[in-house]
Amino acid sequence: MAVYDQSYAGWEGTRTGRLRSVAALVRPGLSAPFKNVWILIVIIFAFVIVAAWMLFLLAVATQAARNPRVESLSKLFFAVGNNIYRLEFFNNFAFSMVLLVLSIAVGAPLVSRDLRHNALLMVFARPISRWDYVLAKFSTLVLFLLFVTLGPALLLFCGQLGMGLEKLSAGQKLADLLAITLHSLILTVPLSAAVLACSSMTKRAYVAGILWATIFFASTGFSEILSEVLKEDWCGLLSWSRLTAHLGDFCYQERGAASGPRNTHALACGWLPPLAILSGITAASLAFVRYRLRSTEAGE
Prior knowledge:
Layout: H1 18-31, H2 37-66, H3 83-90, H4 93-116, H5 120-123, H6 130-163, H7 170-199, H8 205-230, H9 240-249, H10 272-297
């Protein structure tokens, strides 16, 4: 009978890089939402909003072809310039609700599901650090939300260019494209971090979803109440939607009369306070997720 050495031996082959390990965690997280019928319905609704505006742009372009005077379009400020991105899509209430629902439906289970099934023990048994895990979950939610923000916005951008409502230089087109991308990141990056923080607080995804929805709506309500009572400009900084809308507004170039009014949620401050608040929330949320992972792993 042969005798074999069954003692432990370290792995001597080539190890997978950290980026590939993170990507291995991201792939299933990105594919899972598209297998859910209800999530697909909400995604389709986001594209329906864009389709409605595309039809409206077609109607405006037809009117402009019949009467090309600039005055005829002055009343339709939201159809020209960059207003249709920042005012009628990104800061649209219907799209805000779409983003809220999708962030909860996809983001709330990302960490809580692993906590409920004790999957972290298996994940960390591999050469994956806590930060790698946090980065993977964060990237999963950011990439998914970018699909439903940047994707429709780019279709709207291409549609508006195709209608030829304005004569724009290559620099203006590139500026609009960059502004759309930055605005999408402003909407998705802090949101993803905050939802992950809520997800790490509980083993029940629906509890995490309720928690984030409560925070989102409470921030708006509390901000409005304080503004009415104190009459102070800083009260608006407590509203999540006003922070993102105000900061996103600074991404776009002014283009004379075609730009129309700025958004009604604008704050009485520059871009730095909202950027500092949203960046701080993002960093604190990700750090909190890592802390929760460490506490859970230690059995606390």
